Amino acid sequence: MTSAASAACPKCGATTVQSVPIKRGSVPEALAAEYFRGTPAGSRADTIQQSVCTRCGCHWIPRTTQEHHLRAVSGQLGPEAMKAAQAEDAAAAIAAGKASPRTTMPSRIPVRTWIIFVTMVVVILLAIFT
Q1: How far is CA 116 from the centre of its chain?
Q2: Exposed, middle or buried, 9 (CB in 10 Å: 0-12/13-18/19+)?
Q3: Which of 21, 33, 49, 112 is the most exposed place for a label (fewest CB within 10 A)?
Q4: What pLDDT digit, counting tens, does each position of 32-63 carry?
């Protein structure tokens, strides 16, 4: 691991960031293309340098929309960008069939499980108080 001196974490703002080489195949093709767009034309390598924050553990591909989105969500780009990024995340969650974690209940528990649970609680309480 090598240290990236001028980088700052897009999530927590820490400057203790390390650069880790990862296989190009483990990165979505659009993100890899975006990463290589910022490098000289001849440097199409089999690895991509992924940045990792040593304080919070956040990892991202530098100079990509992924880094920009993380900075927006964390508020580093201002409150308007933060609200827009949160709206994007909510829209993506709805499109993926998931709702926001704040608005959903835990996974739906079958009625039979509830009946067993209530029966066991009643039996335990009767055993304690008799």
Answers
A1: 37
A2: buried
A3: 112
A4: 888 888 776 545 678 888 899 998 888 888 88
CA angle, 6 as apex, 38 and 83 as ends, to 5°?
75
| Tokens standing for residue 12 | 């927590």
Angle between helices 65-74 and 79-95 (to 10 degrees): 110
Asked whether the beta carbons of 52 and 15 are under 8 A apart, the reply is no
For residues 47 and 21, give the distance between their C-alpha atoms in angstroms, rounded to a whole number.
Answer: 6
Question: 11 by DSSP, 3-state: which?
Answer: coil
Beta strands in the chain (DSSP E): 2-3, 17-23, 47-53, 59-60
Whether this prediction's pTM lies above 0.85 is answered by no
Q: What is the pLDDT of residues 71-116, one digit of tens each?
A: 888 888 888 888 888 888 888 888 777 655 555 445 678 888 889 9
Q: Is 77 helix (H, G, I), strand (E, B) or coil?
A: coil
